[in-house]
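Forum: Protein Structure Q&A
Topic: Joint prediction for protein chains with partners

I've read a bunch of threads here and the consensus seems to be that you should model interacting components together rather than docking separate models afterwards. I'd like to see that in practice. Below is the full input, 326 residues plus whatever partners are listed. Could one of the regulars post the assembled result?
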Amino acid sequence: MSLHLQSVRVKTGSHDTEGLLIFADDLLVAVLVRLSDDHEEDAGKWFLEAGFDGADDPVQPKFVDLDEAQAWIYRRLGGH
Amino acid sequence: MTPTFNHSMDMLIRKLDSIAQLSDEERRAIASLPVTGRLLGPDQDIVHEHDHPSQCCLLLDGWACRYQILSEGKRQIFSFHIPGDIPDLQSLHLKVMDHNVCTLTQATVAFIPHEAMLELTAAFPAIAATLWRDTLVDGAIFRQWMVGMGRRTACQAVAHLFCEMYVKLEAVGLARDHAYYLPLTQSELGDALGLSNVHVNRVLRELRTNEWITLHGGKLEIKKWRELTNLCGFDPTYLHLERHAA
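Posted by a regular:
Agreed with the consensus. Here's the joint model:
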């Protein structure tokens, strides 16, 4: 299983519009959004806006960078 | 610090008065409860899960919450408490704590021995009934929180909590004109509502941008009470107060 990233703009109802679609092979598994300056100390982190098939959580996590985000998604999808 | 706390039992009397009518004799009996006062710092545990308490904790000043820590360190807050509340009242009849209680702010508390509470409730069945009523209201609040976590949007859940805390604070004389001191962080709001603090942040911005609320230095003012209550379907019936805020 390999992850692919694709830039996208997301309407979150906030200034957090810069996003990424994450595909596992050719299936969409997550949508990440980069947190705007509105979030102060969390600005610049990647937020799991949506996730599918295990790559989700009732309270969505934040990741300091894309490596951390991809590692979490990969682990959640059972890629270990 | 060990000031005389008996006059502070007024806070408990005020709380119980908000949900039932007490006689003068019952008020005097509550006022003469033997209590031990303590000043606690913020984020200090008052009672822990699995403890076997021998006393109840009456909150006289400040805010507290009930909570549990889950695997991976996640925290679920079950309820927020304000002066006049006895968050661990259940320990009077349930011997083992099934959750934790901690302060959220600096707080003044009065510990009441279980023995004294049991004697009081045996001597004054109406007080026992009022405390029972309080725990039933507690259950009604839990039902609303379930609706909040299961069925309300993030914005509705935050709005509902803001309305609920206003009505509770107003009932004990700690809020008026749709404004109050809200000493909660975004993380604490998120832990209570099952929301990420990202969503809490977005909701607060939206409510402020729409000028439905202002929130400066911990002071929350609800500028558009009717709009806010309509947004989240807030109906204070479940708080079973003698008087309703409008």
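Helices of chain A lie at 66-76.
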